[in-house]
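Batch job 17 of 40 flagged for manual review because the log was empty.
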Amino acid sequence: MIRRPLVLLALLVAACAPPPDFRQADGTAGHYAQWQGRWVVINYWAEWCAPCRHEIPELNALHKIRDQESVAVVGVNFDGLEGEPLNDLIGRMGIEFPVIVGAPRLRWDYPMPSVLPTTVIINPEGQVAATLVGPQTLESLRAVWSAPERPAGS
């Protein structure tokens, strides 16, 4: 008899939860709110993009120190792969940071990249801080959030 109220409570909690904003390649649901107050590095990549392959170790390194840097690193497959083909590719390319399926560009209102790799950096206030084209290094990414603030009008 005790199980029925617990099941009803679980269903009620699930019904009140907001729908996910995106899915990760592994099928896990995600919400943009989980990145609130952090720098968000969104990297667009594809298998056929040699410079994309070149920067993966740099993005992996940033992902490993994400808590120290207060940053979230996520990838978006430019070709829109999903499911097993995407997960197989992530493994073959050695990607260690989360890859999301969805359109973060709609959330932050920036255009779809036309050149790869492209990395869009969102500041902790939720605004596009930089759009970097070409392969990035740990240092070039850090430079975005480590740069001294310029006075307004400079």
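Reviewer: the log was empty due to a logging misconfiguration, but the result itself is present. The beta strands are 22-24, 29-30, 39-45, 71-77, 99-101, 118-122, 128-133. Unflagging and moving on to job 18.
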